[in-house]
Amino acid sequence: MKLRTKASQLIWEDAEQAAPQPLLQSHDLASTHSDALRDMWQHVVDGLTKQIALLDEDWTILVVNQSWANIAELYGHSALVPGTDYLQFCRELADSGLDIAMDVVTGIEEIIAGKHSSFQLVYRASDPEIGHEHQLCVKRFEVAGRKFASVTRYDVTRLVELRRLREDFSKSVLLSQAEERRRIGREIHDSTMQLMVCLDMKIGQFE
Fold first, then answer.
1. How many angstroms separate the Cα of 129 from the Cα of each of 47, 81, 144?
2. Which strand (E) or helix (H) includes residue 165?
3. Which of 163, 177, 191, 197 would suit a FRET pair with 67, their CA atoms being 20 to 30 Å apart?
4. What is the distance between the alpha carbons of residues 106 and 180, in angstroms, rounded to a whole number?
5. What's the CA gap between 15 and 81, in Å, rounded?
6. What is the DSSP letter of 19?
7. Rounded CA gap, 86 and 83, in Å?
8. From the CB of residue 188, how many other CB atoms can be counted at a distance below 10 Å?
9. What is the pLDDT of residues 3-30, one digit of tens each?
10. Chain centroid to CA 1: how far?
């Protein structure tokens, strides 16, 4: 099911879809010291270019990676740090008229209602990232009986540009094919008319 808006495209992913098996099983997590697990998670995600945040079941940010912190600072969103209610933050932006925030709130509310387990959307970024396309993914999951959510955001500008180039090329090919069919049609029509004229002249000679 898809929900389109002026600013973005919201795509639902049903909970019934097969999810990849986690690298760490629940008993592995239970036997791992929480501080060590947190440090391990932080070390891994800080090396990624994607902006990543881990949220608890109440949609409060637990931990973010360095890329997330950098983008939050770039936009001046100092509130996007551990301890912030991410859903409330998005609601406030939605109330100000920001379309992407409205879509995120809609998506999270659908997850809370149990209709979906995740969603993703692609949108055009605003200043200071004008001209860039980003994909935002929100997914709820469960570990050791506790519910969490992940929010990831990353630049897909090149992918979107390649998709547009492919679509433009396909349209160009279709237009070329249509023009070629018209040209062949004209040639067939002209040659048929010439043949009819010749036949008419031949017939006239026998009269």
1. 22, 20, 38
2. helix 157-205
3. 163
4. 48
5. 28
6. P
7. 9
8. 10
9. 434 455 566 655 445 444 444 444 444 4
10. 14
- The answer to whether the beta carbons of residues 107 and 88 sit under 8 Å apart is no
Given a contact cutoff of 8 angstroms between Cβ atoms, the answer to whether 103 and 8 are in contact is: yes
Q: What is the pTM of this model?
A: 0.60
**Which single residue is written with the structure tokens 């999810």?**
19
Which amino acid, one-letter code, is at 102? Answer: M
For 76-93, write each residue's pLDDT tens digit: 887 888 999 999 999 999
- Tell me the C-alpha distance between 84 and 90, whole Å: 11
Could you tell me the two tokens for 8?
């973005």
* Neighbour-count burial for 64-101, b at 16+ CB within 10 Å, e otherwise: bbebbbebbeeeeeeebeeebebbebbbebbeeeebbb
Phi, psi dihedrals of residue 154, rounded to the nearest 5°: -155, 160
Tokens 């800080």 -> residue: 46
**Residue 157: both structure tokens together:** 């500008």
The token duo for 52 is 């990543």
3-class SS at 127? coil
Q: Which amino acid is at 80?
A: L
For 3, other C-beta atoms within 10 Å of its C-beta total 15
Beta-carbon neighbour count of residue 156 at 10 Å? 16
